[in-house]
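Request:
You are asked to prepare a plain-text protein record giving the amino acid sequence and the backbone structure tokens, at your earliest convenience.
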Amino acid sequence: MKTYQLLLLFGIVVLISCKKNKKETIVQEPIKTEIVLTKLWETDTLLKTCEAVRYHKEKGVIYVSNIGNVPPSEKDGDGSMSIINLKGEIINQNWVTGMNAPKGIHFYNDKLYVTDIDAIVKIDIKSGAIDKRIAVENAIFLNDLDIDTSGDVYFTDSSDSKIYKLVNDEVSLWLDLEDMNPNGILVEKDRILVVSFSKGDFIAIDKTTKKPSVLATGIVKGDGIVPIKEGYLVSTWPGELFFVDKKHQGETANKILDTKEEKLNAADISIIPEENILLVPTFFGNKVVAYKIGNELI
């Protein structure tokens, strides 16, 4: 009996000792960030069916593409480009005219590239003249556009679910996304980010393998994408803005603004990174609205 009691006591001592020495593992959830938008200014309602904006740091201006009359697939020649300043004042409403339905815009060196239904329009920034119209064979509805640091232009065809690439004025098919209806596009160093207009998915595509991964869901009728320090802001055409936290990828995106009741769309957005200002073209609202981007930890 004494031997049994000694063994039992020894076992209890060992168990207590092990519990004292065992390190507790605490799983801590990453801190979430809440993005807050505060309205700063808006332009006059003279930018007819404004679809895209793009801030140019060196020029200190914002370019705006205006579709004009709808539908936005009509080759009616009433599309235009405008220039506004950083206070929201329209300084050149008809900077470039004679386009059809200009949408996505970006610049490289002294050229501005614009999607226009089934062509890329190349504009000389210094003169405001159209340098060239580059036809995209079999294109149906070219939409958003972005450019990498080498000057290679990537752009989406929302109706045909394709991403094209323009190098030295030559167009090639980069990827067929098979019924995803890609709209907004953002080019990073090693991947291409795309938001679907029909599926509600925001994805990243590896540039080398071309394999996609889901960054966020729940962004129905996605339109524009901009990067911020905390992640990404993504707009939807009906008038919503979502925040995708880089620390919480693969989840449902967090809605941070909804202007549907005001009948203000949110098309191809841009950002003034030095000032943390988001620029939102409102399509049928015929104006651009600027918001200060703030954040809170929750």
